Amino acid sequence: MIEFRSVSYGFEDVPVLEDVSLTIDDGEFVLLAGANGSGKTTLLRHCNGLLEPDSGEVLVDGTPVAANLIAARSSVGMVFQHPRDQFVAATVGADVAFGPENLGLPRAEIDRRVATALEAVNMAGRADARIDALSGGEQSRVAIAGALAMEPTHLVLDEPFTGLDEPSRRSVLDRLESLSRDGTGLLLATHDLRDVCQLADRVIAMQDGQIAIDGPTERTLAELEGLEVRVPDAPRC
Fold first, then answer.
1. Residue 35, SS3?
2. For every one of its 237 residues, what pLDDT tens digit does the chain have, with 9 covering 90 and above?
3. Among residues 184, 174, 171, 235, which one has the least CA distance to residue 29?
4. How far apart are CA 78 and CA 58, in angstroms?
5. Which residue segments constitute the domains of the chain, with CATH numbers given?
6. All residues at 6 or more sequence positions from 85 whose CB lies less than 8 Å from its CB, including other chains
7. Hey, how many other C-beta atoms are within 10 angstroms of the C-beta on 118?
8. 3-class secondary structure for 116-178?
9. Is 168 left (phi over 0), alpha (psi -120 to 50) or beta?
10. How far is Cα 213 from Cα 218, in angstroms, rounded to an integer?
């Protein structure tokens, strides 16, 4: 479970999050909607300690993130908007292995996690492939695999479909649907709910650094007008 308790955060004296309180339950698929600049990315980066609140606190499984960063980052995997921003190695296998290696795990366990994570994103047998030779969709899947190799209870994704063509978008959607089915909690930030709303249990909408709307997907979609969020036609959700 990820819990925000009255979290506020500002950058250079400009408020970005203001008194945000919410809970993301285990196994829940949540869409974090809102226009660019609404605070979505900043909120996500608090989930595993990439940012620290000015006031309030964030807890993962009941423990404050600041009290145990390693535990938080093991439990909450993060996938950035631009996958290249998180790659640290030249090849697929080396990049996916980076997180488990930093946990000090035995080599056999690292290899097992890498193989399992790559299989989960349909990249089995591609460990030696160079990341810079992959398509955008393949890079997105490698980024997801890198997070999965930490065996998190939650996966947090920031605009994961940016720049993807339709086949790549569909491939990533299929992976997310499979992960959700298997019990991984998902928190996905987007300003475009098309295609993903039918997978989500809940929508949280942000505006000016605050929670504007929070509720079940079917009910919440009708309330998003005016928040600069692309909402699909009703039959698609």
1. coil
2. 999 999 999 988 889 999 999 999 999 999 998 888 899 999 999 999 999 999 999 999 999 999 999 899 889 999 988 888 889 999 999 999 999 998 899 999 999 999 999 988 889 999 999 999 998 888 888 998 998 899 899 999 998 887 777 877 787 788 888 889 989 999 999 877 777 888 899 999 999 999 999 999 888 877 777 676 767 665 456
3. 184
4. 15
5. 2-83+154-236 (3.40.50.300)
6. none
7. 23
8. HHHHHCCCCCCCCCEHHHCCHHHHHHHHHHHHHCCCCCEEEEECCCCCCCHHHHHHHHHHHHH
9. alpha
10. 13
Instruction: Give me the amino acid identity at 20.
Output: V
Cβ-Cβ contacts under 8 Å for 60 (sequence gap 6 or more): 1, 2, 3, 47, 48, 71, 72, 75, 76, 154
Q: Where are the alpha helices (DSSP H) in the chain?
A: 40-46, 69-75, 92-102, 107-120, 136-148, 166-181, 217-220
What's the one-letter identity of residue 140? S
Task: Report CA-CA distances (Å) from 73 to 46, 50, 65, 78, 222.
Answer: 11, 9, 9, 8, 35
